[in-house]
Amino acid sequence: MGLPDVLVCGAGIAGLTLAYWLSRHGFPTTVVERAPALRAGGQSVDLRGAGYAVVERMGLLDRMGEVALDHRGFAWVDAVGRVTARIPAELFGTPERMSKVEVLRGDLVRVLHGVGVGAVEYLFDDTISAIVQDGSGVTVSFRKAGRRRYGLVLGADGVHSVVRRLVFGPEARCVRAVGGYTAWFTAPDAGDLDGWFVTHNAPGGRAVSLRSGRSPGESKARLSFTSAPGEHDRHDVAAQQDLVARRFAGVGWKAPALLGAMRAAPDFRFDSISQVRLARWSRGRVGLVGDAGYCPTLLTGLGTSLAIVGAYVLAGELATAGGDHRAGFARYEQVLRPYVRRGQSLPLGMHGFAPTGAGVIRLQAASIRCATSRPLRGLLARQLGRVGQFALPDYGRG
Known about the structure:
Layout: E1 6-9, H1 13-24, E2 29-33, E3 44-45, H2 49-57, H3 61-66, E4 73-77, E5 83-88, E6 103-104, H4 105-114, E7 121-124, E8 128-133, E9 138-142, E10 147-150, E11 152-155, H5 162-168, E12 175-188, E13 196-202, E14 206-212, E15 218-226, H6 237-247, H7 255-264, E16 269-276, E17 282-283, E18 286-288, H8 291-294, H9 303-320, H10 325-343, H11 349-353, H12 358-371, H13 377-386
Parallel strand pairs: 1-2, 1-11, 2-7, 4-13, 11-18
Antiparallel strand pairs: 3-6, 4-5, 8-9, 9-10, 12-15, 12-16, 13-14, 14-15, 17-18
């Protein structure tokens, strides 16, 4: 018997990486994506440790360099824009520890899609409405494409995964809010960021973050705030923007201009800051990868690497098992679970990301200045270098 046909739900970073490696290993692969085309734009992402190594094995480092952003490091400023602390990119060491250049999510998706064209079938502007498993396969009902039969279904469709909801149960059982919300969107660039990812922390657990985009005159903004979990309509953009405007009223630095730009942004998105925690990443012939199975939150900075590494390991273990989903899924969890556990650790939590008090904000900046001082730079560099490290298995080139 040949390898089973595989349906991947989601044409994001995890889904496209998974589709590439599945097809390289010989699996007939289809990707379904709710959006009518690849999702363009988005915030900047970086590749750390093993995520960088997977992209290297895909032969994509040169293409990543073509779409790279200028990245000098991270900086913090006060309400009038004075720099209070910096972590320069060179402290992260070699590129495999953390790329000194970053890429926009949309650019990364476009590059990943490019290497899979021709080998993978894509169904855009469609989604799954039902999944029925039996002993020999999975019958999938699509909203537009009718019914199709697959050997395996793999959900790579993000925190609000349709596959997970249909097979693993309601989202409330799987998604854990960590105490905050974030909005991100494209805004005009004032031209003074100079390659730095800049953040202003304001009392009340509010954080304004900004970095230049790849297009001239464009920046990528993120407005985050601490909050107990609450109800919000994921589809009511105006209500979401009103909430953000209320929470950031009176905040300094560039917040007033960004609140104005937010209303006109074509790519505004808003969501709770959450993790996905599951005891198992598979049920029968259905498995999960990336944020759908183990979203770590933006607080860790490892979401992209976990998605890419998880996709690589899942495809590799299924190939090693000859398409046997029981053996492949079991090994996938055994190999990846320790890496995910480290990636989901939140030693500082939401209040470390967005401190609530002015005194804590000043103390945080002082701590960063101390850690990046010449006597302690080596220690900080070693700590940062361990972030995202993972002994990447070798499954061959497919």
